[in-house]
Amino acid sequence: PHGGAPLASRGQPAGVFERRYSLAPTSDGGMEEHILSLVKKIVPPLSGHKHKGQDGRIGIIGGCQDYTGAPYFAAISALKVGADLSHVFCTKDAAAVIKSYSPELIVHPVLDSPNAVEEIEKWLPRLHSLVVGPGLGREDFLLKTAKVIEKSKARDIPIVIDADGLWLVTKQPSVIQGYQKGIITPNFMEFTRLDTFHGVLQLSETMGNITVLLKGEKDLIADGSTVVTCSTEGSGRRCGGQGDLLSGSAGVLAHWAHTASQAGLITGVNPSMVAAMGASSLTRQCNKQAFQQHGRSTTTSDMIHEIGPVFKNLFER
Ligand SMILES: *[C@@H]1O[C@H](CO)[C@@H](O)[C@H](O)[C@H]1NC(C)=O
Q: Is 237 part of any known ligand binding site?
């Protein structure tokens, strides 16, 4: 069962999660509000004095012959949230397709090259965060991706792992375990594949307290010591690609949150948690507003159209 109370206590052995989870809603909603108020503090002010790239250069690892929509949605969402540049690292045959969707993305056809890791590594010094998994597929790119994640960790770059990237995590948890700038975003279905763990808090603890954003009717965000519900209302409509909007925006927000944390602008809360909460709230509100206009025919593109006004309403007032 889900939709219960926001939780705010330590992880404990199996069973406890379910028990706590069934408690009636408590006043812990204050935690959610608090974290959402911190999102406002991480948003970099728009000023004329910056040079291009300062608000974030985001890398998306994913995109193969069968899946070109997912990396596009993640990359364009990152731009719409406010990143300066979105890079997509995909296979050769996906690259032309993704470019044809948008001239605004930088697309690197490297994922199926024998030097994929080196090709991506070259760009890492210029990237502020990485989103791994949208449209990645489950071919041998996965093994290369693990190496890219290792290199990114060494550079201390925030990493969001979603979709097929989570498959990698189930096979090789150590790839992201304990990395405090890591966020994984399973949905309930992917979650059951991670079912050696009980509950989202335990999953987080088992993963070395990384931030877990569990997508569902209500999203749950855990970081090993805390679980918070994002209760921003969505709609009954789920469309393919919605998760990519979430992961792309989480990529940008993670960069902003860690930058703000280093500058002392937010304290006392895990920056990854702030990023995850912001992305969750934004995605759900985009879903709601798109649904109000398009109802059953709502698609992810409709949601992406809402990012600008929704972001402004949620985080810039
Ligand atoms: C995770 O957090 C819990 C609670 O704060 C702590 O007891 C535990 O040692 C942490 N684990 C790791 C790997 O940091």
A: yes
